[in-house]
Amino acid sequence: MLELDQLDRRIIGTLRGDGRAPIAKIASVLGVSRATVQTRLDRMVNSGAILGFTVRVQEPGGVEELRAVTMIEVAGRSTSAIIRQLRSIPQLRALHTTNGAWDLIAEISAEDLQSFDRILREIRSIDGVLNSETSLLLSSA
């Protein structure tokens, strides 16, 4: 599978926010050329990294993606750098700073357990992440 770099992830993150965003708007937001965005998107689609573009709606009682929250402990004053790296992971739906034993809480969604495992390994491999604990969300009340 294609290795995604930070720009690829930023493009995906922008599309997650607005799946209908024009190439020119994505390029402007990310500070790169329109041709760069188009080339990157074509490469990600052709490689299978992007499977398609779709509308997401909440299905009452329907099956959703695997969802979880991950509590993250960071080393020293590396929180800002870690936040920047975490934001490049497209499957992170939200990221929160907090007090107490954990420094950050990440909300994650994944298609399946294999993808979920890859996301957790990616989070845990970030320099400065000391510890993490993850809980799967089973149902919403």
Uncertain segments of ≥5 residues (pLDDT<50)?
Answer: none
Form type: globular
**Helical content, roughly?**
25-40%
Estimate what percentage of residues fall within beta strands: 15-25%
Structural domain tally:
2
Layout: helices, strands, pairs:
Layout: H1 6-17, H2 23-30, H3 34-47, E1 66-74, H4 79-87, E2 92-97, E3 104-110, H5 113-124, E4 129-136
Helix pairs in contact: 2-3
How would you summarize what this structure contains?
This protein is an alpha+beta fold. Helix 2 (23-30) crosses helix 3. Strand 2 (92-97) and strand 3 form a beta hairpin.
Essential attributes:
Alpha-Beta Plaits; 4 strands; alpha+beta; Arc Repressor Mutant, subunit A; 141 residues; four-stranded antiparallel beta sheet; 2 domains; single chain; 5 helices
How is this structure best described in words?
This protein is of the alpha+beta class. It has two domains: 6-47, Arc Repressor Mutant, subunit A, CATH 1.10.10.10; 66-136, Lrp/AsnC effector binding domain/regulation of amino acid metabolism (RAM) domain (Alpha-Beta Plaits), CATH 3.30.70. The protein has five helices and four strands, in the order H-H-H-E-H-E-E-H-E. Strands 2-3-1-4 form a four-stranded antiparallel sheet, covered by helices on one side. Helix 2 crosses helix 3 (34-47). The protein is globular and about 45 Å long.
